[in-house]
Amino acid sequence: MTKHVIGLTGGIGSGKSAATEAFKSLGISIVDADEVARDVVAVGSEGLRHIVARFGRGILLEDGQLNRPALRERVFSHEGDKHWLNQLLHPLIRAKMLADIGAAPSAYCILSVPLLIENNMENLCDRVIVVDCPESLQLSRALQRDGSSRETIESIMASQASRSERLEKADDVINNTGSLDELHKQVALLHQQYVKHFNLSA
């Protein structure tokens, strides 16, 4: 059976993670880009071996795991290193996501990607869900959750696709301005629609 892929995205503080968890609670397989990005640089991985070969063992923590803050600082101050890292990791992440999609046991799967629109990954998806709320609400939620400064959150928001750009790409929209219960109801309704649309068994 063809594996149907539903892309799910949203800006920082939109509630993308909560929507992803709601689909998971319905028994739907989740392929999470953030988890995949961690997997491809895990201890013993091809990705980590290449990173150590370029930057030295000083880029590792004492337990052998990647020192992410150190790597982030390095690549943001060296454009050549940033380009090299993207060239290394993007194909590995894409290949792992495709493998995970192929192995997903549920009738359709959710591909949860924060930068789905920005990285032009809609072509991997049959449909795209955007979790949406006003930018002012995104900001207040992210400030409460992350403990980051207002300037940092605003900088992240500015680097992401705008609310209008995301909504232009959406096949389905989850309006996350209300309660968690209201979000779960919208997810349940979309699940029913996908089962019917793809002629799947729930």
Automatic annotation (TrEMBL):
It catalyses: 3'-dephospho-CoA + ATP = ADP + CoA + H(+). Gene3D superfamilies: P-loop containing nucleotide triphosphate hydrolases. Pathway: Cofactor biosynthesis; coenzyme A biosynthesis; CoA from (R)-pantothenate: step 5/5. One of its GO terms (cellular component) is cytoplasm. CDD domains: DPCK. Its EC number is 2.7.1.24. Its main location: cytoplasm. It is an enzyme of class 2 (transferase). It is found in: Cytoplasm. ATP binds at G13, S14, G15, K16, S17, A18. One of its GO terms (molecular function) is ATP binding. It comes from the Bacteria. InterPro entries: Depp_CoAkinase, P-loop_NTPase. GO terms for biological process: coenzyme A biosynthetic process. The keyword Transferase applies. The keyword Transferase applies. Keywords: ATP-binding, Coenzyme A biosynthesis, Cytoplasm, Kinase, Nucleotide-binding, Transferase. Belongs to the CoaE family. NCBIfam families: dephospho-CoA kinase. PANTHER family: BIFUNCTIONAL COENZYME A SYNTHASE-RELATED, DEPHOSPHO-COA KINASE-RELATED. Catalyzes the phosphorylation of the 3'-hydroxyl group of dephosphocoenzyme A to form coenzyme A. This is Dephospho-CoA kinase. It comes from Alteromonas australica. The gene is coaE.
